[in-house]
Amino acid sequence: MTQKELGEGMIETLPDGPLDIVGDVHGELDALLALLAVAGYDEQGRHPDGRHLVFLGDLVDRGPDSPGVVRLVQRLIDGGRASCILGNHELNLLRGERKAGNDWFWNENTAHDRRYHPWNWADPAAGPEMLAFFERLPLALVRSDLRIVHAAWHEPSMVALSALPTGGDFGELFTRLDDDADRLLESRGVVAQAKHEKATWRHHFADPEVDMPMLHAVGQLDEDRQMLNPVRVLTSGVERRAAQPFFASGQWRFAERVRWWDDYTDDVPVVVGHYWRQFLPLDRKALGKGDPDLFDGVSPRAWLGPRGRVFCVDFSVGGRWQERKSPDTAPRSRLGLLRWPEKTLVLDTGEMVGTVGRGSAPRAGRTAPARCRAWLPAGAAGPRSRPRSDGQLPLPLHVPPGPLPRPAAVLRW
Asked: pTM for the full model?
Protein backbone atom coordinates (compact mmCIF):
# COMPACT_ATOMS: atom_id res chain seq x y z
CA MET A 1 0.00 0.00 0.00
CA THR A 2 1.69 3.21 -1.14
CA GLN A 3 1.26 6.74 0.17
CA LYS A 4 -0.80 7.59 -2.92
CA GLU A 5 -3.09 4.64 -2.26
CA LEU A 6 -3.74 5.99 1.24
CA GLY A 7 -5.50 8.93 -0.38
CA GLU A 8 -4.21 12.16 -1.78
CA GLY A 9 -3.47 14.58 1.06
CA MET A 10 -4.54 12.17 3.82
CA ILE A 11 -1.09 10.80 4.72
CA GLU A 12 2.01 12.85 3.93
CA THR A 13 5.74 12.47 4.56
CA LEU A 14 7.63 14.25 7.32
CA PRO A 15 10.79 16.12 6.33
CA ASP A 16 14.17 14.73 7.37
CA GLY A 17 16.08 16.21 10.27
CA PRO A 18 15.28 17.12 13.89
CA LEU A 19 11.67 17.94 14.78
CA ASP A 20 9.84 19.90 17.46
CA ILE A 21 6.34 18.41 17.78
CA VAL A 22 3.88 20.90 19.33
CA GLY A 23 0.79 19.74 21.21
CA ASP A 24 -2.75 21.15 20.92
CA VAL A 25 -2.59 24.98 21.06
CA HIS A 26 -6.34 25.77 21.35
CA GLY A 27 -6.07 29.47 20.56
CA GLU A 28 -3.41 30.21 23.20
CA LEU A 29 -1.23 32.46 21.05
CA ASP A 30 0.79 33.91 23.95
CA ALA A 31 1.63 30.41 25.17
CA LEU A 32 2.72 29.42 21.66
CA LEU A 33 4.94 32.49 21.29
CA ALA A 34 6.48 31.80 24.71
CA LEU A 35 7.07 28.16 23.79
CA LEU A 36 8.79 29.05 20.52
CA ALA A 37 11.03 31.53 22.35
CA VAL A 38 12.00 28.96 24.98
CA ALA A 39 12.70 26.42 22.22
CA GLY A 40 15.10 28.83 20.47
CA TYR A 41 13.10 30.00 17.42
CA ASP A 42 13.52 33.51 16.05
CA GLU A 43 10.72 35.80 14.87
CA GLN A 44 10.73 34.21 11.40
CA GLY A 45 10.40 30.71 12.83
CA ARG A 46 14.03 29.81 12.17
CA HIS A 47 16.03 27.64 14.53
CA PRO A 48 19.84 27.72 14.70
CA ASP A 49 19.94 23.91 14.55
CA GLY A 50 17.66 23.74 11.52
CA ARG A 51 14.78 22.18 13.46
CA HIS A 52 11.34 21.79 11.86
CA LEU A 53 8.10 22.48 13.75
CA VAL A 54 5.24 19.96 13.56
CA PHE A 55 1.80 20.88 14.93
CA LEU A 56 -0.51 18.09 16.11
CA GLY A 57 -3.77 19.85 15.20
CA ASP A 58 -6.40 21.49 17.42
CA LEU A 59 -4.86 24.89 16.80
CA VAL A 60 -8.17 26.52 17.64
CA ASP A 61 -11.11 26.93 20.06
CA ARG A 62 -11.53 28.02 23.69
CA GLY A 63 -8.44 30.23 23.85
CA PRO A 64 -8.32 34.01 23.32
CA ASP A 65 -6.78 34.19 19.84
CA SER A 66 -7.55 31.28 17.53
CA PRO A 67 -7.27 33.51 14.41
CA GLY A 68 -3.79 34.61 15.48
CA VAL A 69 -2.64 31.04 16.02
CA VAL A 70 -3.92 29.98 12.61
CA ARG A 71 -2.24 32.93 10.87
CA LEU A 72 1.07 32.19 12.58
CA VAL A 73 1.05 28.46 11.83
CA GLN A 74 -0.03 29.05 8.22
CA ARG A 75 2.82 31.53 7.80
CA LEU A 76 5.32 29.01 9.21
CA ILE A 77 4.03 26.29 6.89
CA ASP A 78 4.09 28.55 3.84
CA GLY A 79 7.69 29.45 4.73
CA GLY A 80 8.69 25.79 4.81
CA ARG A 81 9.48 25.87 8.55
CA ALA A 82 6.53 23.85 9.85
CA SER A 83 4.05 21.09 9.13
CA CYS A 84 0.62 20.51 10.66
CA ILE A 85 -2.01 17.78 10.73
CA LEU A 86 -5.79 18.05 11.04
CA GLY A 87 -7.32 17.89 14.50
CA ASN A 88 -10.93 17.24 15.43
CA HIS A 89 -11.49 20.93 16.21
CA GLU A 90 -10.47 22.01 12.70
CA LEU A 91 -12.61 19.19 11.33
CA ASN A 92 -15.62 20.55 13.25
CA LEU A 93 -15.23 23.87 11.43
CA LEU A 94 -14.91 22.14 8.06
CA ARG A 95 -18.16 20.31 8.83
CA GLY A 96 -19.96 23.49 9.85
CA GLU A 97 -20.43 22.17 13.39
CA ARG A 98 -21.17 24.57 16.24
CA LYS A 99 -19.22 23.16 19.16
CA ALA A 100 -18.30 24.52 22.59
CA GLY A 101 -15.55 27.09 22.20
CA ASN A 102 -15.72 27.65 18.43
CA ASP A 103 -18.10 30.59 18.16
CA TRP A 104 -15.04 32.80 17.58
CA PHE A 105 -15.32 31.52 13.99
CA TRP A 106 -19.11 31.63 13.51
CA ASN A 107 -19.59 35.10 15.07
CA GLU A 108 -23.05 34.19 16.39
CA ASN A 109 -22.35 35.34 19.98
CA THR A 110 -23.94 32.22 21.44
CA ALA A 111 -24.69 32.29 25.16
CA HIS A 112 -22.93 29.00 25.92
CA ASP A 113 -19.62 30.31 24.53
CA ARG A 114 -19.54 33.58 26.48
CA ARG A 115 -17.67 31.84 29.30
CA TYR A 116 -14.61 31.78 27.00
CA HIS A 117 -14.64 35.55 26.40
CA PRO A 118 -12.78 37.75 25.82
CA TRP A 119 -11.40 36.41 22.58
CA ASN A 120 -10.51 37.64 19.11
CA TRP A 121 -13.26 36.99 16.57
CA ALA A 122 -12.48 35.71 13.11
CA ASP A 123 -12.90 38.17 10.28
CA PRO A 124 -15.88 36.76 8.34
CA ALA A 125 -14.16 37.73 5.09
CA ALA A 126 -11.18 35.56 6.06
CA GLY A 127 -13.30 32.50 6.92
CA PRO A 128 -13.14 30.81 3.49
CA GLU A 129 -9.37 31.20 3.37
CA MET A 130 -9.02 29.68 6.83
CA LEU A 131 -11.19 26.70 5.89
CA ALA A 132 -9.14 26.25 2.71
CA PHE A 133 -6.01 26.10 4.88
CA PHE A 134 -7.55 23.44 7.12
CA GLU A 135 -8.65 21.51 4.04
CA ARG A 136 -5.10 21.05 2.83
CA LEU A 137 -3.85 19.63 6.14
CA PRO A 138 -3.20 15.86 6.15
CA LEU A 139 -4.59 13.40 8.68
CA ALA A 140 -1.14 12.03 9.50
CA LEU A 141 2.55 12.59 8.85
CA VAL A 142 5.04 9.74 8.63
CA ARG A 143 8.63 8.80 7.95
CA SER A 144 10.67 5.68 8.63
CA ASP A 145 11.34 6.51 12.29
CA LEU A 146 8.12 8.27 13.35
CA ARG A 147 4.33 8.48 12.92
CA ILE A 148 2.32 11.57 13.83
CA VAL A 149 -1.48 11.61 14.13
CA HIS A 150 -3.87 13.70 16.19
CA ALA A 151 -5.59 10.98 18.24
CA ALA A 152 -5.00 7.33 17.22
CA TRP A 153 -2.93 5.18 14.89
CA HIS A 154 -5.41 2.42 14.16
CA GLU A 155 -4.84 -0.42 11.69
CA PRO A 156 -8.45 -1.01 10.52
CA SER A 157 -8.93 2.71 9.96
CA MET A 158 -5.74 2.91 7.88
CA VAL A 159 -6.98 0.02 5.76
CA ALA A 160 -10.37 1.71 5.34
CA LEU A 161 -8.69 4.97 4.29
CA SER A 162 -6.74 3.13 1.60
CA ALA A 163 -10.02 2.12 -0.05
CA LEU A 164 -11.38 5.66 -0.27
CA PRO A 165 -11.30 7.60 -3.54
CA THR A 166 -9.07 10.67 -3.67
CA GLY A 167 -10.40 14.17 -4.20
CA GLY A 168 -13.23 16.06 -2.51
CA ASP A 169 -12.89 17.66 0.91
CA PHE A 170 -12.70 16.32 4.46
CA GLY A 171 -16.06 17.76 5.48
CA GLU A 172 -17.84 15.97 2.65
CA LEU A 173 -15.84 12.80 3.21
CA PHE A 174 -16.70 12.79 6.91
CA THR A 175 -20.41 13.23 6.21
CA ARG A 176 -20.38 10.46 3.60
CA LEU A 177 -18.64 8.06 6.00
CA ASP A 178 -21.13 8.91 8.77
CA ASP A 179 -24.07 8.37 6.41
CA ASP A 180 -22.68 4.98 5.34
CA ALA A 181 -22.26 3.99 9.01
CA ASP A 182 -25.82 5.09 9.86
CA ARG A 183 -27.30 3.05 7.02
CA LEU A 184 -25.41 -0.02 8.18
CA LEU A 185 -26.46 0.44 11.81
CA GLU A 186 -30.08 1.01 10.82
CA SER A 187 -30.04 -2.25 8.89
CA ARG A 188 -28.73 -4.03 11.99
CA GLY A 189 -31.44 -2.54 14.22
CA VAL A 190 -28.94 -0.69 16.44
CA VAL A 191 -30.45 2.74 15.68
CA ALA A 192 -33.97 1.60 16.56
CA GLN A 193 -32.78 0.10 19.86
CA ALA A 194 -30.97 3.31 20.78
CA LYS A 195 -34.02 5.45 19.95
CA HIS A 196 -36.15 3.25 22.17
CA GLU A 197 -33.73 3.71 25.08
CA LYS A 198 -33.50 7.46 24.55
CA ALA A 199 -37.28 7.95 24.56
CA THR A 200 -37.50 8.31 28.35
CA TRP A 201 -34.22 10.10 29.04
CA ARG A 202 -33.47 12.34 26.06
CA HIS A 203 -34.65 15.50 27.86
CA HIS A 204 -32.26 14.82 30.78
CA PHE A 205 -29.05 14.40 28.80
CA ALA A 206 -27.82 17.90 29.76
CA ASP A 207 -28.68 17.55 33.47
CA PRO A 208 -25.64 16.43 35.50
CA GLU A 209 -27.80 15.90 38.62
CA VAL A 210 -30.16 13.31 37.15
CA ASP A 211 -29.69 9.67 38.16
CA MET A 212 -28.91 8.52 34.63
CA PRO A 213 -29.02 4.75 34.00
CA MET A 214 -26.65 3.05 31.58
CA LEU A 215 -28.24 3.07 28.11
CA HIS A 216 -26.46 0.11 26.57
CA ALA A 217 -27.87 0.43 23.05
CA VAL A 218 -27.00 4.14 23.00
CA GLY A 219 -23.47 3.28 24.08
CA GLN A 220 -23.20 0.62 21.39
CA LEU A 221 -24.48 3.04 18.76
CA ASP A 222 -21.95 5.68 19.83
CA GLU A 223 -19.12 3.13 19.71
CA ASP A 224 -20.12 1.82 16.29
CA ARG A 225 -20.57 5.28 14.77
CA GLN A 226 -17.11 6.23 16.00
CA MET A 227 -15.32 3.10 14.86
CA LEU A 228 -17.01 2.83 11.44
CA ASN A 229 -15.65 6.25 10.41
CA PRO A 230 -11.84 6.13 9.98
CA VAL A 231 -11.57 9.93 9.91
CA ARG A 232 -13.29 10.04 13.31
CA VAL A 233 -10.86 7.47 14.71
CA LEU A 234 -7.70 9.23 13.56
CA THR A 235 -8.88 12.64 14.78
CA SER A 236 -10.77 11.76 17.98
CA GLY A 237 -9.64 8.28 19.00
CA VAL A 238 -10.76 4.74 19.65
CA GLU A 239 -13.96 4.40 21.68
CA ARG A 240 -15.96 1.59 23.27
CA ARG A 241 -19.25 1.32 25.10
CA ALA A 242 -18.74 2.48 28.69
CA ALA A 243 -19.41 0.32 31.73
CA GLN A 244 -21.48 3.15 33.24
CA PRO A 245 -22.63 6.59 32.07
CA PHE A 246 -20.55 9.67 32.79
CA PHE A 247 -21.16 13.39 32.39
CA ALA A 248 -18.64 15.22 30.18
CA SER A 249 -18.62 18.36 28.04
CA GLY A 250 -22.16 19.25 29.05
CA GLN A 251 -24.00 15.98 28.51
CA TRP A 252 -24.32 12.36 29.59
CA ARG A 253 -22.19 9.97 27.58
CA PHE A 254 -22.31 6.21 27.16
CA ALA A 255 -19.14 5.48 25.17
CA GLU A 256 -15.63 6.32 26.34
CA ARG A 257 -12.18 6.80 24.90
CA VAL A 258 -9.77 3.96 25.50
CA ARG A 259 -6.01 3.50 25.74
CA TRP A 260 -5.46 2.27 22.20
CA TRP A 261 -1.71 2.47 22.87
CA ASP A 262 -2.02 -0.51 25.24
CA ASP A 263 -2.25 -2.66 22.09
CA TYR A 264 0.42 -0.84 20.08
CA THR A 265 3.49 -3.06 19.63
CA ASP A 266 5.03 -1.80 16.38
CA ASP A 267 8.64 -0.63 16.23
CA VAL A 268 7.85 2.83 14.83
CA PRO A 269 6.97 5.37 17.56
CA VAL A 270 3.74 7.39 17.39
CA VAL A 271 3.22 10.93 18.73
CA VAL A 272 -0.31 12.23 19.41
CA GLY A 273 -2.11 15.12 21.11
CA HIS A 274 -5.85 15.27 21.89
CA TYR A 275 -6.08 13.54 25.28
CA TRP A 276 -5.74 16.30 27.92
CA ARG A 277 -2.74 14.90 29.71
CA GLN A 278 -1.80 16.66 32.98
CA PHE A 279 1.71 17.91 33.65
CA LEU A 280 0.51 19.05 37.08
CA PRO A 281 -2.72 17.71 38.66
CA LEU A 282 -5.81 19.50 37.36
CA ASP A 283 -9.48 19.52 38.34
CA ARG A 284 -10.75 17.52 35.36
CA LYS A 285 -14.41 17.97 36.27
CA ALA A 286 -13.99 21.74 36.32
CA LEU A 287 -12.72 21.43 32.74
CA GLY A 288 -15.79 19.40 31.76
CA LYS A 289 -13.88 16.11 31.70
CA GLY A 290 -15.99 13.56 33.53
CA ASP A 291 -14.69 10.58 31.58
CA PRO A 292 -12.00 8.24 32.99
CA ASP A 293 -8.51 9.73 33.09
CA LEU A 294 -6.50 7.67 30.60
CA PHE A 295 -3.27 8.75 32.33
CA ASP A 296 -4.24 7.85 35.88
CA GLY A 297 -1.07 6.64 37.61
CA VAL A 298 1.17 7.45 34.62
CA SER A 299 3.92 10.06 34.73
CA PRO A 300 3.33 13.03 32.37
CA ARG A 301 6.83 12.37 31.03
CA ALA A 302 6.21 8.68 30.30
CA TRP A 303 6.06 6.97 26.95
CA LEU A 304 2.98 4.77 26.66
CA GLY A 305 2.12 1.25 25.61
CA PRO A 306 3.71 -2.17 26.26
CA ARG A 307 6.89 -1.17 24.40
CA GLY A 308 6.91 2.52 25.26
CA ARG A 309 6.33 3.56 21.66
CA VAL A 310 3.54 6.18 22.01
CA PHE A 311 3.76 9.68 23.47
CA CYS A 312 0.98 12.24 24.06
CA VAL A 313 2.05 15.92 23.99
CA ASP A 314 -1.29 17.50 25.00
CA PHE A 315 -0.90 19.00 28.50
CA SER A 316 -4.36 20.60 28.77
CA VAL A 317 -3.57 24.17 27.70
CA GLY A 318 -7.09 24.09 26.24
CA GLY A 319 -8.28 24.70 29.81
CA ARG A 320 -6.18 27.81 30.41
CA TRP A 321 -9.19 30.05 29.70
CA GLN A 322 -10.58 28.85 33.02
CA GLU A 323 -7.30 29.30 34.87
CA ARG A 324 -7.31 32.97 33.88
CA LYS A 325 -10.42 33.42 36.01
CA SER A 326 -8.15 33.01 39.06
CA PRO A 327 -5.34 35.48 38.25
CA ASP A 328 -3.63 34.94 41.62
CA THR A 329 -3.00 31.29 40.86
CA ALA A 330 -0.17 30.15 38.60
CA PRO A 331 -1.41 28.11 35.60
CA ARG A 332 -1.12 24.37 35.97
CA SER A 333 -1.78 23.58 32.32
CA ARG A 334 1.10 23.58 29.86
CA LEU A 335 1.71 23.97 26.16
CA GLY A 336 4.56 21.68 25.22
CA LEU A 337 6.63 20.29 22.40
CA LEU A 338 8.48 17.01 22.09
CA ARG A 339 11.95 17.14 20.56
CA TRP A 340 12.74 14.33 18.16
CA PRO A 341 15.03 12.40 18.09
CA GLU A 342 16.16 13.72 21.51
CA LYS A 343 12.87 12.69 23.16
CA THR A 344 12.87 15.69 25.52
CA LEU A 345 10.02 18.05 26.44
CA VAL A 346 10.05 21.85 26.24
CA LEU A 347 7.17 23.70 27.94
CA ASP A 348 5.86 27.23 27.54
CA THR A 349 6.60 28.01 31.19
CA GLY A 350 10.33 27.44 30.67
CA GLU A 351 10.71 23.86 31.89
CA MET A 352 12.85 21.47 29.85
CA VAL A 353 12.62 17.84 30.97
CA GLY A 354 13.50 14.41 29.71
CA THR A 355 10.91 11.78 28.93
CA VAL A 356 10.99 8.33 30.51
CA GLY A 357 10.00 4.78 29.68
CA ARG A 358 10.99 4.85 26.00
CA GLY A 359 11.11 1.22 24.98
CA SER A 360 9.35 -0.12 28.10
CA ALA A 361 5.88 0.07 29.59
CA PRO A 362 5.21 2.87 32.11
CA ARG A 363 3.51 1.95 35.32
CA ALA A 364 -0.22 2.53 34.87
CA GLY A 365 -3.25 2.75 37.10
CA ARG A 366 -6.65 1.61 35.88
CA THR A 367 -6.68 -0.20 32.57
CA ALA A 368 -8.90 0.55 29.61
CA PRO A 369 -7.99 -2.00 26.91
CA ALA A 370 -8.55 -0.95 23.31
CA ARG A 371 -9.93 -3.06 20.47
CA CYS A 372 -7.22 -2.19 18.04
CA ARG A 373 -3.60 -2.73 16.98
CA ALA A 374 -1.75 0.09 15.27
CA TRP A 375 0.05 -0.59 12.01
CA LEU A 376 1.44 1.30 9.07
CA PRO A 377 1.31 -0.64 5.78
CA ALA A 378 4.68 -1.28 4.17
CA GLY A 379 5.79 1.44 1.80
CA ALA A 380 3.67 4.20 3.32
CA ALA A 381 6.34 5.88 5.41
CA GLY A 382 8.11 7.68 2.58
CA PRO A 383 11.87 8.05 2.17
CA ARG A 384 14.25 7.02 4.90
CA SER A 385 15.41 9.72 7.23
CA ARG A 386 18.41 10.11 9.50
CA PRO A 387 18.74 7.19 11.94
CA ARG A 388 17.11 7.78 15.30
CA SER A 389 19.16 7.78 18.45
CA ASP A 390 18.26 5.16 21.06
CA GLY A 391 20.88 6.25 23.56
CA GLN A 392 20.42 7.37 27.13
CA LEU A 393 17.66 9.88 27.85
CA PRO A 394 18.79 13.32 28.96
CA LEU A 395 18.59 13.84 32.70
CA PRO A 396 15.36 15.71 33.52
CA LEU A 397 15.63 19.05 35.24
CA HIS A 398 14.01 19.30 38.64
CA VAL A 399 10.51 20.76 38.40
CA PRO A 400 9.81 22.60 41.68
CA PRO A 401 6.29 22.75 43.11
CA GLY A 402 4.32 25.97 43.05
CA PRO A 403 4.43 28.88 40.60
CA LEU A 404 6.95 28.71 37.79
CA PRO A 405 8.71 31.66 36.20
CA ARG A 406 7.72 32.83 32.75
CA PRO A 407 10.44 32.66 30.09
CA ALA A 408 12.61 35.76 29.84
CA ALA A 409 11.89 36.25 26.15
CA VAL A 410 8.59 36.03 24.34
CA LEU A 411 8.45 36.25 20.57
CA ARG A 412 6.25 38.88 18.93
CA TRP A 413 5.38 37.86 15.38
From this structure: 0.84
